[in-house]
Specification:
Strand order of the largest sheet: 2-1-6-5-4-3
Radius of gyration: 16 Å
Largest sheet: 6 strands, mixed
Number of helices: 4
Length: 122
């Protein structure tokens, strides 16, 4: 399973290429918004999402039939930035399930800034 090629097709919103990475009975869970998609619903949600998107894989881990990625996803104009942590269950070299968690990037909340704790990562 070429997870980098999957992410390239997902970020470019290419439904035909995306579909080739999945089992037909795959399910995708977006836990932050309490949504579960079948394959076609997921491709529609991904490819109809407004805007043009780019991204960088920051980390990949593989444990048996599980691939975990952390991806920095951002709009082409760089006005939106977020991170996705994705857990891909692989069966017969295809994606059978994704459990995905999305978070918007931004500054620390004011209450933590006021406490003067922590420091920027970069």
């Amino acid at each position: 399973m070429d997870i980098a090629a999957y992410w390239k097709s997902a970020l470019a919103q290419q439904p035909g290429k995306m579909r080739s990475f999945f089992r037909p009975d795959a399910l995708v869970y977006w836990h932050n918004t309490n949504e579960c998609f079948n394959l076609e619903e997921f491709i529609q949600a991904n490819c109809d999402y407004p805007g043009e998107w780019q991204g960088d894989i920051e980390r990949t881990e593989t444990i048996s039939d599980l691939i975990i990625t952390v991806v920095h996803v951002y709009s082409a104009d760089r006005t939106v930035s977020c991170h996705a942590t994705s857990f891909f269950t692989i069966k017969e070299d295809k994606i059978a399930r994704i459990d995905e968690y999305w978070g918007d990037d931004g500054p620390a909340p004011q209450w933590r800034l006021d406490k003067k704790i922590g420091r920027p990562i970069r």
